[in-house]
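Q: What residues go here?
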């Protein structure tokens, strides 16, 4: 059996067995807590800190819910009202909080690599979970996307998945690609305008497209990404209408995909820019299901790193 994780900062290089164990546990915990209506006490007496240096709706809330459903205590550290905003160094903040006896730190930061820095500086016995760092990794999103696809299409060795939009700045795309590749998804297609695409060397096993009509042809799942302007330096982008015309998901394009193609998006969605409202809310949309799965996946991760 692959060893239990102490931290989770990326899905890259995680064994397939570990990823499958986390997905299986997410489903088992979902059933054990009766889809969230029953609280478990697996992590009673443990304390989890949400340390978010970037805004978040889904991830922060679902980590909090996940920890509470497992019986842990949760501290939501409000950066805006903390000494970090007075210039306190990250590691001084870390050690101050650790002195209050924490078991896990869930961190989101604009700099890629911050979670690994925390792993190096954290007191032994404190687990670090990455809730998104720069454009590098968002491992729990990668897991919840894999779980959402698996629940509908477990035949991964037959599947074609398209990721479309601002892949270059997307930590979600990177963690998705790591999860899907390890789990044996047959074909991963990446599509977007050249300035928003990763280099061919970064993911040589993925197919690269700049024509969305060609990329979505026969696809079994399509993951749409937001333009992450906060992470772009100076990129010359088409205006929003032109972007939607070339890279937006509308009903006409969706009809080119395989029947029942899953429509996914990590959120927040920008209606009319990367996805048409009737597709986001349509029968093939799995977007809210992704959100629901996020809680169970985060319960599985907390359980993995913290259960005694
Ligand atoms: N919520 C995701 C993230 O934090 C995707 C996004 O922001 O577009 O990376």
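A:
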């Amino acid at each position: 059996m692959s060893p239990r994780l102490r931290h989770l900062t990326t899905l890259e290089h995680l064994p397939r067995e570990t990823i499958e164990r986390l997905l299986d546990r997410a489903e088992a915990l979902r059933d054990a807590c009766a889809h969230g209506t029953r609280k478990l006490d697996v992590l009673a007496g443990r304390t989890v800190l949400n340390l978010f240096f970037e805004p978040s709706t889904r991830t922060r809330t679902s980590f909090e819910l996940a920890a509470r459903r497992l019986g842990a205590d949760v501290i939501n550290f409000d950066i805006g009202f903390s000494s970090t905003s007075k210039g306190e160094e990250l590691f001084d903040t870390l050690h101050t909080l650790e002195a209050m006896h924490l078991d896990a730190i869930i961190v989101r930061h604009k700099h890629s690599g911050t979670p690994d820095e925390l792993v190096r500086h954290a007191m032994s016995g404190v687990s670090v979970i990455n809730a998104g760092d720069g454009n590098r990794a968002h491992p729990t999103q990668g897991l919840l996307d894999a779980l959402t696809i698996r629940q509908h299409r477990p035949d991964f060795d037959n599947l074609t998945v398209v990721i479309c939009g601002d892949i270059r700045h997307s930590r979600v795309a990177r963690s998705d690609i790591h999860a899907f590749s390890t789990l044996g998804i047959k074909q991963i297609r990446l599509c977007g305008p050249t300035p928003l695409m990763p280099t061919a060397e970064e993911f040589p096993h993925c197919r690269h497209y700049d024509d969305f009509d060609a990329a979505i042809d026969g696809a079994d799942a399509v993951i749409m990404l937001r333009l992450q302007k906060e992470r772009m330096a100076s990129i010359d982008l088409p205006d929003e209408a032109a972007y939607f015309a070339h890279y937006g998901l509308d009903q006409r394009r969706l009809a080119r995909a395989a029947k029942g193609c899953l429509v996914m998006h990590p959120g927040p969605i920008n209606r009319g820019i990367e996805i048409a409202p009737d597709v986001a809310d349509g029968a093939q949309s799995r977007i809210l299901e992704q959100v629901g799965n996020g809680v169970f996946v985060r319960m599985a991760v907390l359980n993995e790193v913290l259960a005694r």
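A: Context that may help when evaluating the design: The chain is about 35% helix and 15% strand. The chain has two domains: 16-137+291-306, 139-286.
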